[in-house]
Write a structure and sequence with these properties.
Elements (H helix, E strand, L loop, with lengths): L5 H11 L11 E6 L2 E6 L13 H20 L4 E5 L8 E7 L7 H9 L17 H13 L3 E5 L2 H19 L2 H9 L1 E2 L8 E2 L34 E6 L5 H20 L3 E5 L1 H4 L1 H11 L5 E8 L27
Parallel strand pairs: 6-7
Antiparallel strand pairs: 1-2, 2-4, 3-4, 5-8, 8-10, 9-10
Helix pairs in contact: 1-2, 2-3, 2-7, 3-7, 4-7, 5-9
């Protein structure tokens, strides 16, 4: 008897595709063969200018991998994972094989339930502080996936980090090819299955904001609303900066995001300081880690936000290697 039937596989992939990815590019593919599931990067969905190194695609695929693990666990079919199982195949990111059947743990059930409710919230958050016990749970979530989550506390740390974000934003804003690719993944309609529709992109960015955001939106923020002046910022790191480390960081990121969702918190991601090498190193030194950071998060309480579109799960399932279509 095979590990998964087709329906169970599609159901698991559907959960996996709810992961975040840069510009909602959804750079993942899944392949079922016998008693193994392969996670592959989709070369047609790479961002050649915004993500020239493939770092962001691996972070997104790592997040999808964590969702896939949860979906299999709640089916009673937990999986063992090998990251980068073939040194000769850069498209193949992870391979999952069956472990002994068991019931899902309460934590797996709770995190799995959070998958459809997790999405980036680019709107202003409330000024309500996050209690210490919830902060501890977010730190523990990263640690459970072999990552670190360093919270930036106090006005000095927040102002210094904001300067880094804004400096990186300014560098990237001067690059015409970068901005053109960004515009190509920003959609003026919600009748799409990928990219960032303006409805989910948040209000139009304003120069006076504490943290400069990528500008996806055209909607103006009402005069009586503004972004919080004391956000909870957090820096996510993993064991290093090799491709496997980035996949691990993606899993840690998704566990943090799902934990936040389960706790009633909202989150948005700032990758600009990760994309500019000099700023990335400044952020590394600010948190005192020996390895480069993989993501900057903003966490807090907020009202609901629109959900980004997703391709049907079947579109992310393949029966052959993605490189075959490139030859």
């Amino acid at each position: 008897m095979s590990w998964l039937n087709e329906l169970d596989f599609v159901t698991a992939v559907e959960a996996a595709t709810r992961a975040p990815s840069m510009l909602n590019s959804q750079p993942w593919l899944f392949r079922l063969g016998g008693d193994e599931i392969d996670l592959l990067v989709d070369p047609r969905r790479r961002l050649p200018r915004v993500d020239a190194s493939g770092w962001a695609a691996r972070i997104g695929c790592g997040a999808a991998l964590f969702n896939l693990r949860l979906a299999l666990a709640v089916q009673g079919r937990p999986a063992a994972v090998r990251l980068m199982p073939d040194a000769e195949d850069p498209f193949l990111l992870a391979r999952l094989s069956p472990l002994a059947a068991r019931p899902a743990t309460p934590a797996e059930v709770s995190l799995h339930r959070a998958i459809p409710h997790r999405h980036s919230n680019r709107a202003p958050f409330m000024e309500t502080p996050i209690p210490l016990r919830l902060r501890a749970q977010l730190i523990a979530a990263a640690r459970a996936e072999y990552g670190w989550l360093d919270l930036l506390i106090g006005p000095v740390a927040i102002e210094a980090t904001a300067l880094m974000v804004n400096s990186a934003h300014a560098v990237l804003a001067r690059e015409a090819d970068y901005q053109a690719e960004l515009a190509g993944w920003t959609h003026r309609t919600d009748r799409t299955t990928d990219g960032v529709p303006v409805a989910t992109g948040g209000p139009a960015s304003r120069p006076e904001e504490l943290l400069r955001r990528r500008d996806f939106g055209e909607t103006q923020l009402p005069a009586h609303r503004d972004y919080e002046r004391d956000p909870l910022l957090a820096v996510l790191s993993a064991g290093g900066d090799w491709p496997a480390d980035q996949l691990q960081a993606g899993q840690a990121l998704q566990r943090v995001l799902l934990t936040a969702t389960d706790l009633g918190l909202a989150a948005s991601l700032f990758s600009q300081p990760i994309e500019v090498p000099q700023v990335r190193d400044q952020l590394r030194r600010a948190v005192g880690r020996p390895v480069p950071p993989q993501m900057l998060l903003r966490l807090g309480y907020a009202s609901g936000a629109p959900t980004s579109p997703r391709r049907p799960a079947i579109d992310a399932i393949v029966d052959r290697h993605p490189a075959e279509g490139l030859r």
